[in-house]
Structures are given as C-alpha cells and as structure tokens.
Amino acid sequence: MGRLIHTVRAAAQTFQDHAVDVLWQTKTVVIRSAQQEAYKEEIRCLEKGGKLSKRSPLKKLNPTIDKDGLLRIGGRISSADLPNYEKHPVIIPKNSHIATLLVRHYHEEVVHQGRHFTEGAIRAAGLWIVSSKHLVSRVIHKCVTCRKLRGKLMEQKMADLPADRLVKEPPFTHVGLDAFGPWLITSRRTRGGHAESKRWAVLFTCMSTRAVHIEVIESMSTSSFINALRRFFAVRGPAKQLRSDCGTNFVGACKELGINTEDSKLKNYLAHQGCTWTFNLPHSSHIGGSWERMIGIARRILDAILLHAGAAPLTHEVLTTLMAEVMAMMNARPLVPVSVDPEMPTLLTPAMLLTQKISPLLPPQGDFDQKDLHRNQWRQVQCLADTFWKRWRMEYLATLQKCRKWTEDKPSVQEGDVVLLRDNQARHNEWPVGVIQKTLPSADGKTRKVEVRIFSQGAIKVFLRPISEVVLLLSKDT
C-alpha cells in the first residue's frame, strides 16, 4: 500500500513538473515572438556582437540575450543579492498585445489598485515593460471595475441661461421657489412650560430682478404650500412661470391646482390660470442654483438675527417678523459691485424697483402745498423704474456672461452606453448598473439629461437623471 502511494505521488510530481515546463516553454515562445516583431534589428545586432544604434529605445537598458533567446535588462546591479529574474528582467515591448494582457493581469492581482501598485507587481514578476507608465495608466483608465469603484460623475459645459433670467419684465413674473426650515416655535404655554411646534418657510425668487419674497408655513403639506402661494400672488401679483425642484409638496400642490405639465389640455387650462409650472430634473439641485443660493443667504441672515436676539422665546409672530426683516435685507443687497464713482452714489438693488425708494431718507423740511404731493410723483416713480432697468441691462447682465465652472466641452454620453447610477443611500460599489436608454440634448446639442434603464428587484425601471448623477463605465463604441 505504501509503495502504491509513493508511486502515485511520484507520478503526480512528474506531471506537475511537466506542466510547469510546458507553461514556461509556452511563455518563452510568446515573449520571444513579441520581441522578434518589435526589436528585430536590435536582436540581430546583439547576436552579431555589435552595438545598438543611438536611436534604439533599448540603448539605455544595456540588453543581453539569455540562453532561451530572450532579451533581458543588462543593467548595473549584477552583483546584487537578488534572484536572477529580478536583476535581469525580461523586456516586453510596450506596443505588443501581451504587454496589455500582462498589465491587466497584474492589475487584477493587486485588486485594482493604482499605477504604482501595478508597476511594482509587474517588476516583481521579472518583467520590464518599456515605457510602462503610459501603458499602465491607459489600462487603469479603461478598467471598468476601477470606474465602478472610483469613477467620477460626468459633467458637461455650462449651458446658456434660460430666457426668464434675461428678460425685462415686472418683478416676480418668472419665479423660482423652494422651501427651507424648520424652526421650533412656542405655540402655546402650559403649566409645565410650553408646547412647541415647527414652522417652515417658502422662498420665492424673481428670476430677472433677483428680488425675494418669503412666506412662513405651518407644515410641509400641500394645503399649507397652496395658502403660501395664494398669499404670494395676492401681494406680488400673478406669475407667468414657476420653477421648482421635484419636492413632494410642490408636486402635490401642482396636482391639487390641476396643473399637469404632460396633459394635452394644458394650454386651455393655462389660458385661464395664466401660469405654468416647470419642474427641474430629479436629483439636480444645481439647476435651481439661482434660488438655492438665496436660501443660503436667508439662513445666514436669520442665524445672525437669532444669535443677536439671544434666548428669547420664538413665536409664530416673531418668526414672521424676522422673515420680513430677512426679506428686506436681501432685497437691499447690491446686484453689482459697489461703484467708487462719485457720480454713481446709488446702489442697484431689487428694493429700488419694489419699493421705489433708493434709501430710507426723511422727507425734506419746509412748507409744501398738498397739490405738490402728487404733481410729479408718477414721473419720479417712472424715473426710478427706468433707472433700474437701464442699469440692470448695462451692469447686471454683464455679470452673468462669465462661466465660473464647467467651462470645457466634454464628450456626451450616447444611447447604449453602460453607466453607474448614483444612489445616495448606498455605497459607491453598490450603485446600480444601467444602460442609457435615451439622451435628451439641450438647445446647443450637448447632452445634459438622460433616461437610464436599470434592472432592480426583479423589474426593469427607467429613471430620468442629469448626467451629473451617472458614471460612464463602458461606451458603446469601445
């Protein structure tokens, strides 16, 4: 029995040695073939004992030919206490297909780490790929697994501003809106202290004059928002267009008001209502940056006011008053840099148009007739309005010309591209993989929003998303 076991082990060892020998011979043949194709002149010169040309890419490597006919690095570390394959690595041509395969293999061996890890694994295996840095970088750049783990979200050159940011119309004709909060207020006092409730605020932003209007609401519900919208229309007049994100309360208000942007009877309805409602793409807060920035300013002003007020109890009346003061401060902000020209002492602010007041100056002293009060008032109002729009056109519009980011054209995604869909509730490596089902180019021909088809929970789902929410994994052209 022992002799049989010994015989089986010997046979297995012989078979293993034979397999290793066959593998080495195959490896030698493949590498030698690639070297013959790329360095035919160098090999011929070395076999004859000559010197390499100064233009040869192997000149600085001092190459030699081993007993198997392979080109190896000569170098200057022959006396080092290292294995022979590390002192004299095999030369691999950078343009050969086996170089790409080797880089992919050792890149997977180091579990998709960076270029230094991959190059170190290649060098430790006794291989020297000529100009390996560019090849390794190119392979890693095209690696789908690396894109899935660390890929950057796509972006595109900034689009032109919409027309409602550039038109000369009455204030709050085109409006962007959003809600923010909450704040705890004292709703009623009890024996043990006081009962608290929450309040939110809706900020309406004029798209052209950059004026703001703030309404306090009791809850983030459709009915509260509709009441705020009605108060806004009663004070500022009806708007032609509302812009908002896809918040639940905004969508609910739209449904309750009967506004359906996809309804074929929309035109007839809007003829009576006189207002349209445009929703931004889901997960695209940057599209509403003009009013998102106003919310940030309102928060900072309110925080400073509350800090100055100290620990005084906050009631609904106090909060409403504070919001009115915040609104007044925001509407008094300069739209353009303050001029040092003594001939231009007035500031261009939204309040100039809303209140028809340049500054809260007291009336001049003296005796005036009652008739003088109304004689030229309409001319003063008209003059202030004309001054605002003239300076708005000459000074403010020029500030919108520059692109502060996203200044370069980027390749657009195409239908059929494989992408990774961002999910804020999951880790990067758990984001779902999908396919671009449809691209929706903008007026300039660049794609900034797409329809992504994914398979999730046993069903096919389609999502409309901006390209800033997807990571390109594999283009259909590759």
Structural overview:
It contains 15 helices and 14 strands. With 478 residues, the chain is an alpha+beta fold. β5 and β6 (193-206) form a beta hairpin. α4 crosses α6. The longest helix is centred in the first third of the chain and has 37 residues, at 2-38.
Radius of gyration: 36 Å
Shape assignment: elongated
What's the tally of helices? 15
Q: Main sheet: which strands, in order across?
A: 7-6-5-8-9
Beta percentage is 15-25%
Helix content estimate: 25-40%
Low-confidence stretches: 360-365, 368-375
Q: Span from first to last CA?
A: 60 Å
Secondary structure class reads alpha+beta
Count of individual beta strands = 14
- How would you sum up the major sheet? 5 strands, mixed
Average pLDDT for all residues? 82
Secondary-structure element order, as H and E? HHEEHEHHEHHEEEHEHHEHHHHHEEEEE
Summarize the structure.
The protein has 478 residues and is an alpha+beta fold.
Task: Summarize the SSE layout with pairings.
Layout: H1 2-38, H2 40-47, E1 64-65, E2 71-72, H3 84-87, E3 90-92, H4 97-109, H5 115-124, E4 127-129, H6 132-142, H7 144-150, E5 174-190, E6 193-206, E7 212-217, H8 222-236, E8 241-244, H9 248-256, H10 266-273, E9 276-279, H11 289-309, H12 316-331, H13 350-354, H14 372-375, H15 377-399, E10 418-421, E11 433-441, E12 447-456, E13 459-466, E14 470-474
Parallel strand pairs: 3-4, 5-8, 8-9
Antiparallel strand pairs: 1-2, 5-6, 6-7, 10-11, 10-14, 11-12, 12-13
Helix pairs in contact: 4-5, 4-6, 8-9, 11-12
